[in-house]
Amino acid sequence: MPSHVSDQGTTQVGEHDDAATPGAGRGDGARRGATMRVVLVTVTVLAVLAGSWLMNQRQTEEAEAGEISQVEVAGAAPAPQIGEAAPDFTAVGIDGEEVRLSEIEGETWIVFMATWCAQCRVEAPDVEAAHAEGDGVTVIAVYVGEDADTVDAYAERLGLTFHQIPDADNDIARAYGAGAIPHHFFLDADGIVRDVRFGALGPRQIDEALATTR
Fold this sequence. Notes:
Blueprint (H helix, E strand, L loop, with lengths): L1 H64 L3 E2 L19 E3 L5 E3 L7 E6 L4 H15 L5 E7 L3 H11 L4 E5 L3 H5 L4 E2 L1 E5 L5 E6 L4 H9 L3
Parallel strand pairs: 4-5, 5-6
Antiparallel strand pairs: 1-7, 2-3, 4-8, 8-9
């Protein structure tokens, strides 16, 4: 009898252990399921945030790049390409100072623009800021088809202090094939074109372009 009771007790304990195991498994499964749901939600949120950031970044870059406006420049020569010498020119700015490209020391940034050009106005503060930093680059704005009085009023209104060159007869624009504005040429100290860009440039694009001239 005592041995029979002992066997029965042993059997009952084993049955209790077996019964406890499935319950523990279900609890572990529930916890794993909850963890997976948290992970999936987190991944989804991160994906949405990443997509939103990329979209905003792309929109920012597009806004910085901007659009271009077509201008009529009869008899325009092919625009100088990267690695070619920039055409020399001599012109008088709105301040009465004569500017000769070949006599400028250091790097030069030439931007073809116009007072009526919306994207030119957009980038004007950033161009002025780059000029004000005084990194040795000479900034020259050439106003396609516009006279001195028009350019003078525009530059004063926007507070532009770099070289302002009226190009009423399109002589400079013709030499550079500037049929669209804003049109930027970045030259090294030897007058060689190192970068060419279209549209309104933001600070990042300006820094990238200027870096190619050094």
